[in-house]
Design a protein that fits this description.
This protein has 70 residues and is an all-alpha fold. It has one domain. Helix content is 81%, strand content 0%. The chain contains three helices and no strands. The radius of gyration is 17 Å and the shape is rod-shaped. The relative contact order is 0.11.
């Protein structure tokens, strides 16, 4: 599911870049940088959750991910 969200973020940012080049406006490129920053933050949070789950048990499965709920 997270990979699908990443792909949607990057496709939207690519559209922003194309339309900013088409209209000679740099706002779309700034939005693209913002979207890439949000996508990187989301990826780092997901990776940190997997690292924590691996430290709790040697196997990462659904039951260990349930224990990370707050």
């Amino acid at each position: 599911m997270l990979l699908c969200i990443e792909l949607m973020f990057f496709s939207v940012s690519l559209n922003f870049v194309f339309f900013s080049v088409f209209t000679y406006n740099t706002i779309g490129q700034l939005y693209c940088l913002l979207i890439i920053t949000v996508a990187a933050a989301e990826t780092s949070i997901g990776l940190s959750l997997l690292v924590i789950a691996h430290r709790l048990g040697s196997i990462v499965n659904y039951k260990t991910l349930i224990t990370l709920r707050g």
